[in-house]
Design brief:
heterodimer; A: 73 residues; mainly alpha; 64% helix; 0% strand; B: 181 residues; Rna Polymerase Sigma Factor, Chain: A; Arc Repressor Mutant, subunit A; 2 domains; 8 helices; elongated
Chain lengths: 73, 181
């Protein structure tokens, strides 16, 4: 593609797609922003911690179970 | 205006919890129009631009500790907004078509039929995001190459290369659609 082709492509694009005019959002975006800021990072539910604790306790008591657990992971 | 942003962000950096939300609201309301307008130029969809404006300010809020007042807030916000728009483009699973119901640009050649305009917008939507964003800003919005380079964090030469590659892609796509540019 030479400079002439490039210029023709530029012209075709300008004739086809209008630049966007500056405008304002149609609604107040601050409530959305507040909602985003107030959202807390999700904490795993309590039973996940209990389950993890149980598995760790079991592994501590029965170390031979480690290969079996790894196999099923 | 930069002073407002600097003062507000300085509050954030120092974790002034009691003033931070009010201060950030001031900042948000002062600059949301600029950020929205910039995003609208890139994504060309008001609803998406609104969502990305919120996303941009959320990223600004999280990255407030890295703000350098010496470099100015507007430029920094534009960089973050541009990357938010680029991420949005990349996350679109299907090709994004620019709105086809856009009116013809003022002074448009009547010889360029609506069908050709439609095909050009479709071809634009098929461009890879990193080429599309540069082509929109450089060719459609006629932004200076140095400004585009600044918001994308690339050199001016890289902008020129991307514009050239985008035009080449578009030409090939249009030829595939039966249009000889």
């Amino acid at each position: 593609m030479n400079a002439h082709d490039e210029e023709r492509m530029n012209e075709l694009i300008r004739q086809s797609i209008a630049p966007m005019h500056a405008s304002e959002p149609a609604r107040d975006l601050w409530p959305d922003m507040l909602h985003r800021m107030d959202a807390r990072p999700q904490v795993p539910p309590w039973f996940d911690w209990v389950l993890a604790g149980g598995v760790l306790g079991f592994v501590a008591l029965v170390p031979a179970s480690i290969p079996v657990l790894l196999y099923y992971l | 205006m930069q002073d407002v942003a600097s003062c507000v962000l300085e509050d954030f950096r120092r974790d002034h919890a009691e003033t931070s939300e009010a201060a950030f609201e001031t900042l948000f309301r002062r600059y949301q129009r600029d950020v929205y307008g910039w995003l609208l130029r890139i994504v060309r969809n008001p609803s998406v631009a609104e969502d990305l404006t919120v996303e941009t300010f959320w990223r600004i809020y999280r990255a407030r500790a890295r703000f350098d007042p010496a470099r100015g807030f507007e430029g920094w916000a534009r960089v973050i907004a541009t990357h938010a728009a680029l991420d949005w483009m990349r996350n679109q699973r299907t090709t994004v078509e620019l709105p086809v119901e856009l009116p013809a640009p003022p002074g448009a050649d009547p010889g360029v039929a609506a069908e050709i305009r439609r095909k050009v917008t479709i071809a634009f939507g098929r461009l890879p995001p990193k080429l599309r964003i540069v082509a929109i800003l450089a060719v459609v919005e006629e932004q200076p190459h140095k400004d585009i380079a600044a918001v994308l964090g690339i050199s001016i030469a890289a902008v020129k290369v991307r514009v050239f590659r985008a035009l080449k892609h578009l030409r090939k796509d249009l030829e595939g659609q039966g249009i000889k540019p």
